[in-house]
Structures are given as structure tokens and as C-alpha cells.
């Protein structure tokens, strides 16, 4: 935690002197096997430095990509590893019913390095699968986060399996209607909304007033992400960072800093 706070303070101090952009915590990225043939771990870290990304929630398919990034030991970028329950791309469709995935997850958990589980995909009644319930309860018992790419129905089912479990809602539902998003945030204080692919955040070139009101109401419960789920997204990282900074400029500086970086600091205590 202290390290993240110092990194943020240093980044903000430098920014004040040199008009550098707001530092970011990328709370949704993937360094998948396909991207590893396109960008080396050294190039990924260099891209983050260039873009002003000072903290990252790292997930990969398989998890080797995340391990390679950690091995860079970048002192100026905090890398928070999550365990992704995918060995290969098809796992996303049936991971919650796969004995092979269950064995893989157990093996990966034994590393003792992961702060959460996900990003995983699950929708509707599939979230009542016994293994999903087991993962939710395990996360709650161990103080880990879940990172769920899910509709609101699945999120609510997950939260019933393990009331109080900490959950990052990938894309904040992506297409979930705003009325339902607002209801979910009021009802479940343990949800944090990740903002990638929420196409309605922008309205007429600026922050959508409805999103602004929600961010002002829950300034501690949103984070940003690039979601480099396919290799071409890596070429858009700088553009995505600029988009977030432009949208967050519509908020008071204190709130913008929280969503850009400080919430990531608070969520993951790093020695």
C-alpha cells in the first residue's frame, strides 16, 4: 500500500511540475499468449511507462503471461496478479463445469501470489454452477477479489453464493441499463465498476451527465481498464488512456484521481 501511495504522490508531483497527464491504474488488462508473440514483457512495461500507467491488474491466458510481467520487477509500476481460470480460449465457455480447469486453478493458487480470480465470463443461471459457488466462497474466505464479466443476473447470483465477496464488475455490465447499474451500486456496496467498453460514458464528446452523477455519488467504486483481450487492443492503449483522461477531466480533480488511480491503490495493499 505504501509503495502505491508513494508512486501516486510522485507521479502527481511530477505532473504538477511538467503538466504530465493523470497517472492511471489499469484494472483490466490481458497479456495473452497471442500478444506475447507481438510484444515482449519489456515492451509492455515500456508502453506502460510511456502511457503513464503506474499500476496494473494483470491477467493472462494462460497465467504465464502475468508471471512474465511480474518477472520484470518494474519498480515504478505495481503489478497486481489475478488468476485467470483459462488455459486456452475455449475455456471461457465452460470453465465453470470443467474438471481440467478446477485442477488448473488449484495448481495456480498454490503459487500464493494471486490477489483475485478472473477475469472470467459467466452469465445468467450458469452462475449457479457448483464450481462458481465454490470459487466465490473461496475468494470470500481468502480475502480475494473476483473479476466477473457478467450480466447483472449472474453478478447477483455470485453475490448470493458468498455475500460480501469483493467483486470487480468488468465493463460495469457493458450494456446493463443505467437504471439497473444504479440499483446494483446502491444494493451491493462490495461491487466496483470497471469502465472499459461502456460506450455510453461519453456523450457529445464529454462525460455523460448521468455517469458523472453516479461517479460523484460513488467516487471510491470505479476503476478504468484497457481490456487488451485481443492483440490489436495493445495498439490502442495510448488512445484509451487519453480517452479516460478526457472523460475524467469532467470531474472534480479529487474524484478524477480516485477513479484514475487512487481506487486501485486502496483496493490492493502492496507491501
Automatic annotation (TrEMBL):
Transmembrane intervals: none
SUPFAM superfamilies: Metallo-dependent hydrolases
Keywords in alphabetical order: Signal
Oxidoreductase recorded as keyword: no
GO molecular function, one term: hydrolase activity
Pfam families tied to this protein: Amidohydro_2
Signal sequence extent: 1-18
Domain Amidohydrolase-related: 124-267
Keyword hit for Transcription regulation: no
InterPro entries per UniProt: Amidohydro-rel, Metal_Hydrolase
Record's protein name: Amidohydrolase-related domain-containing protein
High-level lineage: Bacteria, Pseudomonadati, Pseudomonadota, Betaproteobacteria, Burkholderiales
Amino acid at each position: 500500500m505504501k509503495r502505491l501511495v508513494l508512486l501516486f504522490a510522485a507521479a502527481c508531483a511530477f505532473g504538477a511540475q511538467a503538466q504530465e497527464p493523470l497517472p492511471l491504474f489499469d484494472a483490466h488488462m490481458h497479456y495473452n499468449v497471442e500478444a506475447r508473440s507481438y510484444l515482449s514483457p519489456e515492451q509492455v512495461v515500456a508502453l506502460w511507462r510511456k502511457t503513464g500507467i503506474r499500476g496494473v491488474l494483470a491477467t493472462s491466458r494462460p497465467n504465464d503471461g502475468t508471471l512474465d510481467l511480474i518477472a520484470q520487477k518494474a519498480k515504478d509500476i505495481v503489478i497486481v496478479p489475478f488468476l485467470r481460470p483459462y488455459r486456452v480460449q475455449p475455456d471461457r465457455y465452460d470453465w465453470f463445469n470443467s474438471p481440467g480447469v478446477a485442477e488448473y486453478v488449484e495448481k495456480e493458487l498454490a503459487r500464493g501470489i494471486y490477489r483475485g480470480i478472473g477475469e472470467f465470463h459467466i452469465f445468467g443461471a450458469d452462475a449457479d454452477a457448483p464450481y462458481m459457488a465454490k470459487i466465490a466462497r473461496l475468494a470470500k474466505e481468502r480475502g480475494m477479489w473476483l473479476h466477473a464479466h457478467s450480466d447483472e443476473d449472474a453478478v447477483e447470483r455470485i453475490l448470493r453464493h458468498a455475500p460480501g465477496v469483493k467483486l470487480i464488475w468488468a465493463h460495469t455490465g457493458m450494456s446493463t441499463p443505467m437504471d439497473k447499474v444504479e440499483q446494483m451500486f446502491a444494493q451491493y456496496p462490495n461491487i466496483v465498476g470497471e469502465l472499459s467498453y461502456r460506450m455510453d460514458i461519453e456523450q457529445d464528446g464529454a462525460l455523460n451527465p448521468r455517469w458523472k452523477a453516479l461517479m460523484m455519488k460513488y467516487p471510491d467504486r470505479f476503476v478504468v481498464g484497457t481490456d487488451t483481450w485481443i492483440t490489436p487492443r495493445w495498439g490502442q492503449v495510448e488512445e484509451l488512456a487519453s480517452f479516460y483522461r478526457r472523460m475524467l477531466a469532467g470531474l472534480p480533480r479529487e474524484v478524477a484521481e480516485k477513479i484514475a488511480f487512487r481506487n486501485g491503490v486502496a483496493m490492493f495493499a502492496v507491501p
